[in-house]
Amino acid sequence: MTAILGAVCGVFTSADQDYLVQARQMQALSLAVHIPLVCFGIAFPAMVLFCEWRYLRTGDLVFRTLARRWSKVMLALFAVGVVTGTILSFELGLLWPAFMASFGNVFGLGFTLEGFSFFIEAIFIAIYVYGWDRLPPRLHLLSGIPVVIAGVTGSLFVISVNGWMNHPGGFELRQGHALDAHPWSALFGNSYFWHEFVHMYFAGYIVAGFLIAATYAWGFLRGRWGRYQRTALTIALSAAAIAAPLQVVIGDWAARDVANEQPTKLAALEGLGPTTRGAPEHLLGWYDGHHVGYGIEIPRLLSLLAFHDPNATVEGLDAVPVQDRPPVNVERFAFQTMVGIGTLLALLGAVYLYVRLRHRRLPSSRWFYRAVVLAGPLSVIALIAGWITTEVGRQPWIVYRIMRTSQAVTGAAGIPVGYGTLVAVYLGLAGGVGWLLLRFSRVPLEADRDG
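Above: the chain sequence. Below: its structure as tokens.
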């Protein structure tokens, strides 16, 4: 099998490797900035529309005020997402030209459909935000539905490309190029697509929900606790609290797909050196090239989690050459960070749901709201750690077991200059968004209620 893979990879010509690390860092930086915005694109429009629907059902002006104020934030984050998403699309072509040239006819359909979703979202988000008091109430509500749908489909089409990169198919490889491509089969027939999409969909509600709830929890700790703030926190925290425990189940689904399709990634996640029957799980610790030291070993747990059989055989890192293994400790740290934070968020969500459903009120403890404030940034850390787990665990392949990342990178000079420029752009965007959100927060509630 190794000989076959070597022969396949040999048809690609490696570009100049001087800037491989910088190119990967640029791509990682752009993804880290853009992915939280994707979460808001997935979840936030549905929250805004829910508020307006509640207003139309009840006539309660608090819901209208909330929907109107949140819609401005939604537009601002969409605009920033346009910039960061455009940068990402350029980076694919500029940093990884061999990848685009060899396989663009396979996954290009995904980006084309994502482009249509973007234009639909842009058109209707403008109609929705500027249609307050200009459209009849029910028509205005209906104008928000395409925004919700496009926010989901846009991420769906991009994730389908990532799923294909992890489980490639739908083409024949001849002389380093994909021929006889079947894009629909490649993008939506790969086994990775569904669990990645569902995992990301729930992550969207977790990140958006906890980040929004964190701002109102902070207000509670500083004495701002009117009906408007309580309503906003309830909606955001309810969305996150429902999604967080369900994400644990989805994570089990994703882990079993990894065990079946990418056993080397699973071995890296757990620092499993030799192929082992009844493999143990190690919490924390450090992989020294052979085994995990200083960790807490739980016998047979890895086999149980990966295959639902405590005696199942789990393939170790020794099944592949050293050059075909991902960086183990980076992968283990990212994975355990994601799982650890995700578990804490699920517990926090369970506490909230228990109090809400059992006592019909919000929790009263200040410690609970301190935890919610921390849950906002922690949810973003877990999100980024999850994508590190997915992407770094696939290394050294950009297309799993077909094309190496080193074979896809550009040979052009000037990457460090572009890297520095990118950092400056993102710092400017962060400052602009922070200033804009601060201005929105200082607008009196009466201005949106009476507008």
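Residues 15-189+413-446 form one domain.
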